[in-house]
Amino acid sequence: MSTPASYANPKLFWKRWGGLIVTTVLILAAIAYYYAREPHVTEAVLASTLRQSVPLVLGALCGLIGERSAVINIGIEGQMLLAAFIAFMVNVWTGNLLVAVLAGVFIGAVLGLLLAFMSVTLKIDQIIGGTVINILAIGLTGYFYQVGLSAKGKLNPIPLGPLAKIPLIGPVLFDNPPITYAAIILVFVVHYVLFYTPWGLRTRAVGEHPRAADTLGINVYLVRYVNVTIGGALAGLAGAYLSLEAVGSFDRLMTNGRGFVALAVMIFGKWTPLGSFGAALLFGFATALQTQLQFGGKINIPPQFIGMLPYLLTIIVLAGFVGKARPPAADGIPYEKEG
To answer: How many Cβ atoms sit within 10 Å of the Cβ of residue 121?
Structure first.
């Protein structure tokens, strides 16, 4: 059995995984230290970490599915925002949370289809296409939003029996609302589909060598359309999470840059679902920590500086630990079929 190059060469292995290993060890050490001192606070921070990571990992899955088929999606922010608004309004009109979530997923898929149409069929610059979606979402939600509306219910935690009573792990992993569970499951589903199914192989082939894939009979346009549309649906689920599970209401620009952070999470995760999940947890941990520091009252510094912590950590990690990130070879390049 051959040994992978990254394992045979220690320098290459450390260059590729060193940042993630160091960061993981430091975080685990901090968690163990604070759990020994303040177990309830530690449970609250870890539970908040998972909740904060949900829209980021869903947004990252949206981006990596598209980019694995060579379509850059910087419209994740707009897809999440408009989906959050539509999901909230449908809940206000119908009072049905399931219908509202499905409406958010649907509008995300529609925006994904719009991006695919602009990028694959019209072959316009993909950055411009994503920017159009962002501007469209900001304009529509700002114009149609009505102050004073309130959601009819909110997605509540569903404890998974005895598992929810396990110390530390139970309250964090097994006592969550449904979209949080769905996000965790989707990470592993997307990983399996992308790396262990024929569709995933075709997707990666289209993202690396679309012309070679075309000569093998793979419909490059169809693969890109399907992936970008499914990615939009995942971003729509992230939007529904924000308005129906995390907050239970809607505010203008409530995504607050999460769509763009999701792109950083995707890059930090090396365009892989499991790596993106780990990066999302890292950013979620920083966000949960800064919230605890702000309300804990133990550090007497301006809250603006504490609020910078998640974004500062993202910059440090991307600049210092990620190393060289290589996107799919055909990423962002429109495909022109010969003949």
So the answer is: 12
